[in-house]
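Researcher: Please generate the 3D structure of the following complex. Treat every line as part of one assembly.
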Amino acid sequence: MMDETTLIYISVSAMAILLVLVDATTYGIFAILIAVFAIIGIFIILLINYADFIIFPLITRILKMRIIPAKNYYIPKEQDCVIKSANGVYYATGYLTANLYNYVFTSEESEENETLLISAPTRWERALMSIKFPFKYNLIVAAQDVQSYRDELEGKLSLLNFKLSRELSSGNPSQMTIDDLQRQIRIVQARIDRLSSGEKPIQSLMYIESTAVGVSEKAARDALSNQLRQIQTVMSGFDLSITRITGRELYYLFKFNYFIPASMRDLMSLFSYQK
Amino acid sequence: MPNFQILIFGIFATAAFAFAIVASTFPASLLKFVLGLLAIFFAVLAFSMRYYYYIVIPFIHAKGKTILLDEKEPFIIAPNGNAIIGKEGEFTYATMFIRIPIYSSSTEMSEEERYDFSNLFSKLVSLSKNPIKITTQLNILNKDDYINKLRDKLNDAETRYNTILSKKDAKPAEVERAKGEVTMWHNLLDTVSNSNSLIAISYASVTAMGGNDEEAINLAMQSANEIMAGINSIYGVVSDIISTPELLMLIEPDYMIPFSTINQQIKGVE
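Model: Done. Output below.
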């Protein structure tokens, strides 16, 4: 889902390009060329929005540019870690997304949630015990308004029930669609039940951070990659969606080490991976 | 900063529209084509400000292949050592770190207790409507002092052993005991100094914004007190604010991996 701000940015920028595109026929011998460039422009905008973590590191690699986010720190051209050079050694810090949300909150039944919640502390401890290097699991959270979230869920439930009854009353109902809708209804109902039992809805952003040390930048980066791979293996038991963070989001996560934004909305809009 | 983002987006978007409109008034020519291209270029540039506004000015001023976003330290320590302070534009930010002292292990819990523990964690994460960061961290333990104590013990044991050996009437059992003691301290020193020890810390951090350092620190302290009260009542523990030098272990990589343990750390990841 695209947030409102991004939608405004895309609409305004695309409108300027469309203005050129609709006028392309008046460009004479350049008509086809300008139309192609306009389409490329729109394509680049979409690419920046959905895959800037590929484009930005590509540009910094081509230009061989490194970014200094603060004194004693730099982000190398590969844009995959933040490096601190101190006492003649290099400390490389890298980040992984680790959205635990799916682990419990997409369960269809309350009983299923219960089983997961019982096993969670043991699994977490086992995972921590397998890690033999510096590591941080970060969870940025803020409670949401219960009533508005409940209204949203109830609206969703009504819509799903309507879709289900329409499918059931149709001439040729598809069993697959019915099963899928019933599953979705159970998930939403389980969430409503959790709210009724006194739980508060939260907005969250979760990520893993690890730091490796080396006598050169390359040694530190290689050690970091090794550590991040080990974390991915260790955390695989949690059914986490784990991705190594590269590009722009790295800079924000570096800043979150020191200061976190005042609103969850500002924070979430900075991240494409976590949407 | 968002105001700057809107401003710079507005400038590029206006440029894109201006070039597109001017181009539409021209007859077909190379100039019209160039104006059209400029309109497309500025439109793409305008959109890229959604994510990269912070890099535009530093990019223009870049020296060689380095983009300098900030030349200051990422933070300064508050005078009483219990918060970090940073500045962005006119605003000051203060962050405080609150220890979550939970030392029980799930292996000691029954199924019911584990379920309750997970539910308590759900309560912990919904403590505040403002964002809080909850972190579990593994640090390399700085064992310098411990290793020095072990060395002292080993030296004492060796001195005792030599003294006993030098005695003419030393009993074999006494010699054997002193020798055993030396071996014990030797083995302990080898084991401790040849492996990394990790320490786990759980903490919550909260940031507040103010017009100056004092205001930001006071607001952060208010939020921290609320969160501490929540942690204390949920888990029945006494949480506290982490201050220097422990604070640095949470935010600085060179404190996460003490300098004296680097050799072991490099060996460990090979």
